[in-house]
Write a structure and sequence with these properties.
Layout lengths: L1 H14 L4 H13 L10 H18 L2 H6 L1 H13 L23 H25 L27 H9 L4 H10 L8 H13 L3 H17 L17 H4 L21 H8 L3 E5 L4 E4 L9 E6 L6 E7 L5 E6 L5 E2 L1
Helix pairs in contact: 1-3, 1-12, 3-6, 6-7, 7-9, 9-10
């Protein structure tokens, strides 16, 4: 499942330096899905596949692998292009929606799907800028999406978040929404991660940390030792049954051990340890650990193609952070 391993990879990039399984997944879906078909039969999953290819390159600078995938990238790019109206940027035909387990209206999905299309175009063009052998930049006409269509009173949190991530929602409206949003059912770890990312984009780090505490903290409070596929913040002890109450699945279908919910690992590495890649292969990183109110001490390492970056952070009595970072010589820290 493309979206599953796309989200799971966010933890992989932090923890491991061996991506054989991830690369095999990218290859099998890219090569194994012929022109004229959507990956996993879901149009949004083909778009997430492109984003996965970009993020793999961002974290590894593995140009050899990207060039080996050139034919498949171009094949799926052509299929998406052939399904878009050249004058409007909208897909020619509506299709079965899926972006998130939380139910949403068809029109909500349609808007969010096209926001994902805009995100995909941006990331593909970033990839092509670094690997020009892939061909010309993507020139999809951007659809005329309206900000107000993402700020509707929807139970699906992913709708406003896709508007924010794509830039359709203005910075002012995005900050207003993020500051006032209260995590509540139904919320999934998938959307909770994107909520934390959106908060961090605008410097609302305490809000982002609060999201992680509420959703993943609830799992810890209930003695979970694994990440759940979905979440219910209130309910009876039978979490496995409760999680299916807002999905199309029958009871006991949702997983209580699901790698797409491991995303806090990446958020913690980027904002608690403070290491965020700015150029492919971690050749340039921002080092900016967060002075969270609850933070006293933390240390850790982040894998890069040149070796690990080691970080240590201490909060001093005056509240300021004393930091120590050791990085390979190929990594420029800013």
């Amino acid at each position: 499942w493309v979206y599953d391993y796309y989200m799971a990879a966010k933890a992989d990039y932090v923890l491991w330096d061996d991506f054989k399984v991830l690369k095999r997944s990218i290859v099998e879906l890219g090569h194994g899905t012929p022109y004229g078909y959507w990956m996993n039969s879901i149009p949004s999953y083909t778009l997430w596949w492109f984003n996965n290819v970009w993020e793999y390159y961002l974290h590894t600078e593995d140009k050899e692998f990207i060039l080996a995938m050139k034919e498949d990238i171009q094949k799926h790019l052509q299929w998406v292009t052939d399904n878009i109206e050249s004058d409007t940027g909208f897909f020619k035909e509506k299709h079965a929606p899926f972006l998130e387990w939380v139910p949403m209206e068809e029109e909500e999905y349609w808007n969010a799907f096209h926001a994902l299309l805009m995100i995909t175009k941006k990331n593909l063009n970033q990839l092509i800028a670094y690997v020009p052998e892939l061909g010309s930049p993507v020139k999809w006409q951007e659809p005329n999406l309206k900000e107000e269509d993402f700020l509707v009173n929807s139970q699906a949190l992913i709708i406003p978040l896709m508007g924010i991530l794509s830039g359709v929602v203005s910075d002012t409206k995005a900050i207003e929404f993020l500051k006032t949003y209260k995590s509540t059912n139904p919320i999934s770890p998938l959307s909770a991660f994107w909520l934390a990312e959106c908060c961090s984009k605008f410097g609302l780090q305490e809000h982002a940390w609060n999201v992680l505490q509420i959703v993943w903290g609830y799992m810890l409070e209930k003695d979970s030792t694994t990440f759940w596929e979905s979440s219910i913040l209130t309910g009876k002890r039978d979490f496995h049954h409760n999680q299916t109450t807002y999905t199309a699945y029958d009871s006991y279908r949702m997983s209580l051990c699901h790698s797409w919910s491991s995303t806090p690992v990446q958020w913690i590495s980027r904002y608690i340890l403070g290491i965020k890649p700015m150029k492919p292969g971690f050749r340039e990183v921002v080092f900016k650990p967060l002075p969270l109110a609850e933070l006293r001490y933390c240390s850790g390492s982040i894998s890069t193609p040149f070796g690990a970056i080691y970080v240590q952070v201490n909060k001093e009595k005056n509240g300021e952070l004393a930091t120590r970072v050791i990085a390979p010589p190929e990594v420029r820290i800013i």
